Amino acid sequence: MSAEILLGAAPQYNVLTVGEERTRVLIIDGLLDDVNPVCERARANMNFAPEAGSYYPGVRAKLPRDYGMLLTRFADNCIRQQYAVEDDLNATPCAAFYSIVTTPEDRLSPLQRIPHFDRHERHVYAVMHYVAPGEFGGTGFFRHKPTGFERVGVDRREPYLNSVTDFFVQHGEPPAAYIDGTTNQYELIGQVDYKPNRLLIYPGNLLHSGLIRPATDIYAGQGVARLTANVIINYL
C-alpha cells in the first residue's frame, strides 16, 4: 500500500516579483511532510510517455488523484491570497501530471528552445512541485525583447506568435540547446532554483522555461531523473 502524502507542518512562504510587469511568483519550501512517497509512486508508474500535442521535451504520466487534489487545494488557497481571483470562480484542475525531461538538445524543435506560456486565459495558474532529490536546473522567467511581453494574455497571443515567427525568419532559428539565460530574443527576468519539496505557483501566461542542464537534467533511463509534478488550475 502506498504511503500517505501529507502536507508539512510549517511550509516556508516567499514571493519573487519578476519583470517590469511585476508578476508574483510564489515559492513554498517544505510543502510536504515527506516527499519520498511521491517519488516512490512515480517510480512505480510504468505509463510515462510523450504527451500528444505538447511541446514538452520529455515524458509525462498522470498524477495520483489524491496528490493532484492536495496540490490543487493548497495552491487554490495561496492563489486567492496573492492574486485577484473573483470569489465566485472555482479552481478547476485542467491538467495534472509528472514530468521528466528526456529530449537531447540536438533533437529539440525550434519552439522547444525558447520560453513558452502554458495558457493565455486571465485566471489560469501553473503549479510546479520539485520532487526528486538532487541538484538540477530550476525555472526561469523571461521577457520577449521584440514585443516587450512578459505575459501572453488573450490580446497578446496573436501578435506574440507572429513576432516569434518573424524573428525566426529574419535571424534564423535559435541554437539547438535549452535556453538557460538571456538571448538575442529573450531576457531572463527572474529564476527559481531547483530544490526538492519546493512548490512554485505563477500565472500560466507568464513566459517561462526550465533551465535545463544537459549533463544532469536529461534523463536517459539511469540514475535519478529531474522529476516534477505539474498542475494547471483554471478558474471558472
Describe the structure.
The chain is of the alpha+beta class. The protein has one domain: q2cbj1_9rhob like domain (Jelly Rolls, Sandwich). It contains four helices and ten strands, in the order ββαβαβββαβββαβ. The strands form two sheets. It has a seven-stranded antiparallel sheet with strand order 1-2-8-5-10-4-3, with helices on one face. A three-stranded antiparallel sheet has the order 7-6-9, with no helix packed on it. The chain is globular and about 55 Å long.
What's the layout of helices and strands?
Elements: E1 12-18, E2 23-29, H1 36-44, E3 58-62, H2 65-82, E4 91-101, E5 124-130, E6 139-144, H3 157-171, E7 186-192, E8 198-203, E9 208-210, H4 214-217, E10 227-235
Antiparallel strand pairs: 1-2, 2-8, 3-4, 4-10, 5-8, 5-10, 6-7, 6-9
Describe this structure in a few short sentences.
The protein is α+β, with helices and mostly antiparallel strands and 236 residues long. Helix content is 19%, strand content 29%. It has a 7-stranded antiparallel β-sheet, covered by helices on one side.
